[in-house]
Write a structure and sequence with these properties.
There is one protein chain. The chain is an all-alpha fold. Helices cover 76% and strands 0% of the residues. Helix 1 crosses helix 2 and helix 5 crosses helix 6. It has one domain.
Length: 212
């Protein structure tokens, strides 16, 4: 399947059975970008509606901390959201989800192994051989954690912690999309698409607050 549908088809196949494997077919940036934006909009709009409905039903108003920042420092907020956040968040949540960069997980295992007097080579071999089993847990776990930290974007975040899987549903799904992008096409694409996503949301608001 060619064109933008390549990204969409690849994403849904990957979610059904996550595998730590880069795509090996030729692809064009414009097709990937169109496929990403189509998937982004298709998933984001329903999840935002779900969050809004649940918030009304529970009678909670999770006001964002960014509301105040937009009023005071819209340009700083825009730069942080479009440049700094994608770079830092992709490095923190998705750099280590590939086996060849999994020393983030390997080193603690080796440390525990030494404490238990288990040879670290055996532990490393176990990590390699069991990666296909462990990988889906790491992939979905990183997306869930990515969503969880965004609950702290809201005022009185502690009050909403029990509802975080619902209130951060858009971010959890975005974590899945960025995670797939990182695995299939590389970290540079996940950073770039993350920046584009934030830019599409933030730039219109930034312009509004600057001219109002």
């Amino acid at each position: 399947m060619d064109g933008p549908f390549l990204f969409l088809n690849g994403f849904f196949k990957f979610i059904k059975h996550p595998i730590d494997r880069r795509v090996n077919h030729k692809h064009f940036f414009k097709d990937l970008l169109f496929g990403f934006l189509a998937l982004d909009i298709t998933i984001l709009l329903p999840t935002i509606l779900i969050v809004s409905f649940v918030s009304d039903a529970l009678n909670i108003d999770p006001s964002s901390k960014f509301d105040v920042l937009f009023d005071s420092e819209p340009i700083i907020l825009a730069v942080s959201a479009i440049i700094l956040a994608p770079l830092l968040e992709e490095l923190i949540f998705r750099f280590f989800i590939r086996l060849k960069y999994a020393f983030f997980y390997v080193y603690p295992i080796i440390l525990v192994g030494r404490m238990l007097k288990i040879h670290h080579i055996c532990l490393y071999k176990w990590m390699i051989t069991s990666w296909s089993t462990v990988f889906p847990v790491i992939f979905f776990g990183s997306s869930l954690l990515f969503g969880f930290v965004h609950i702290f974007n809201f005022e009185s975040a502690e009050e909403f912690l029990p509802y975080f899987p619902i209130l951060t549903l858009p971010q959890i799904f975005l974590g899945l999309i960025f995670g797939y992008t990182r695995i299939a096409y590389g970290l540079k694409y996940s950073i770039l698409f993350h920046a584009i996503h934030n830019g599409v949301l933030i730039l219109p608001l930034t312009i509004y607050y600057l001219v109002k």
